[in-house]
């Protein structure tokens, strides 16, 4: 794909492709990296013959880029189960209150 055609494709579809990457990866920085990789791959290959299939083609490339990036991510160990106590004494109540406050302070992820 030539530079001018690539530029027009990016201007028209870049936002949509980035949103697709963000929905798969969940992090803006990763979505930006994937978006860049999508258009590097697009530059190497001719686009679809049917101009109405361009977005579908870009989404397929974006999906592959995102899944490649997910495979390269380091594995995260699952969190250990917290023992917050069940005896009912005041130390256990304090510990449960601290854990509850900590959990409320972090985001849903």
Q: What are its keywords?
A:
109 residues, mainly alpha
Chain-wise SSE layout:
Elements: H1 3-25, H2 28-44, H3 54-72, H4 90-105
Count of DSSP E strands? 0
Strand content: under 5%
Average pLDDT reading: 85
- Low-confidence runs: none
Description:
The chain is mainly alpha-helical and 109 residues long. The chain has helices at residues 3-25, 28-44, 54-72, 90-105.
Structure described in brief:
The protein has 109 residues and is an all-alpha fold.
């Amino acid at each position: 794909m030539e530079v001018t055609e690539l530029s027009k494709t990016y201007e028209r579809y870049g936002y949509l492709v980035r949103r697709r990457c963000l929905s798969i990866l969940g992090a803006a920085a990763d979505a930006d990296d994937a978006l860049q990789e999508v258009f590097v791959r697009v530059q190497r290959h001719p686009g679809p013959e049917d101009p109405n299939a361009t977005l579908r083609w870009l989404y397929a490339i974006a999906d592959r880029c995102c899944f490649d990036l997910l495979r390269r991510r380091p594995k995260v160990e699952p969190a250990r189960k917290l023992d917050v106590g069940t005896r009912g004494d005041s130390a256990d109540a304090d510990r449960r209150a601290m854990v509850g406050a900590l959990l409320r302070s972090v985001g849903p992820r």
